Amino acid sequence: MTNRTTNTYTRGLHQVAPGVSAWLLPDGEWGMSNAGLVQGEGESFLVDTLFDLLLTTEMLQAMSGTTGNSPIRAALNTHANGDHCFGNQLLADDVTIYATRDTDHEIHHGTTPERLRMLVTSDFGPVTSPFLRSCFGRFHFEGITLRAADVTFEDALTVSVGGRDVELLRLGPAHTAGDAIAFVPDAGVLFTGDLLFIGGTPIMWAGSLENWLRACDRMRALDPTAVVPGHGPLTDLDGIAEMRSYLAHVKDQIAEGFAAGRPWRETADRMDLDRYASWPQAERIVVTTYQAYRQAAADTPAEDGIELFGEMAAWQQRHAGKR
Ligand SMILES: [Zn+2]
């Protein structure tokens, strides 16, 4: 059943405009991502698949109840994180999958389902391992075969879906190298992927912060009436403004720490998150700070994913009592 109420955050399909729906997946934390559906005459367009085959099957079954004679014929992966593309193999072979060139590259060379499985089953010590399991332990990474894009684009592409336009725009690098959004102009609905987290803290795996701020401005300029974030409940222009203010808040302190010659770990540790300290996953500031330093100074030593998750786990423990 399509839930016509747009302001409730419940698991399932929510109609946000005529023929445009969001698939919401509370609690919106690590891997609990949203997706979207645009229905045209005789065909539909999907925005993102989900983190595992069970989640994606549940979503596609629910969608098939509303698509009727307009089956999914095309899809966008907003970016390469597994919670937005690991379900691709469940789409019919004749579904055309779109992604930016950078996202396609990252799907081919990024974190695999096997690696995620290894992260939750291996022992990385008493701080890191419980954190990794809290992030990814609830998902099922077995049986996933990566399926990448059929059509890639650089900056922008308009796809016609049964008589309606879906505009695909690349706004990254920010959350990842290839972040793209999907905008449905006739309905005023914007699907942001992980350029927007609502009720949670953003994490910058690529960036820069300057470009993410620019991405917020470009999303705002589209003047959407409904905004579907990559994680969290439905929002509107206020949600974009809130994300922008967080990014601007941390950007200033990171620049200050960098200018003072502080190591990135210390800058992340001393960060005054102010009112954003109560946002879930506040520890993601660790990765955002690290990436901002990498942008500012290419000789910042590279850290691998396990090291960064370990740093987030440690940050979370150190700051647990202060929030
Ligand atoms: Zn995500």
Descriptive labels:
disordered N terminus; Metallo-beta-lactamase, Chain A; single chain; 7-stranded mixed β-sheet; binds zinc ion; globular; alpha/beta; 5-stranded mixed β-sheet; 9 helices; 323 residues
What would you say this structure looks like, in words?
By secondary structure, the chain is an alpha/beta fold. Helix 3 crosses helix 4 (128-136), helix 4 packs across helix 9 and helix 7 packs across helix 8. Helix content is 35%, strand content 18%. The strands form 2 sheets. It has a 7-stranded mixed beta sheet. Strands 8-9-10-11-12 form a 5-stranded mixed beta sheet, with no helix packed on it. The protein has 9 helices and 12 strands. The N and C termini lie far apart (39 Å). The chain has a single domain (12-322), classed as Metallo-beta-lactamase, Chain A (4-Layer Sandwich), CATH 3.60.15. Strand 8 and strand 9 form a beta hairpin. Bound molecules: zinc ion (ZN). Zinc ion binds next to loops.
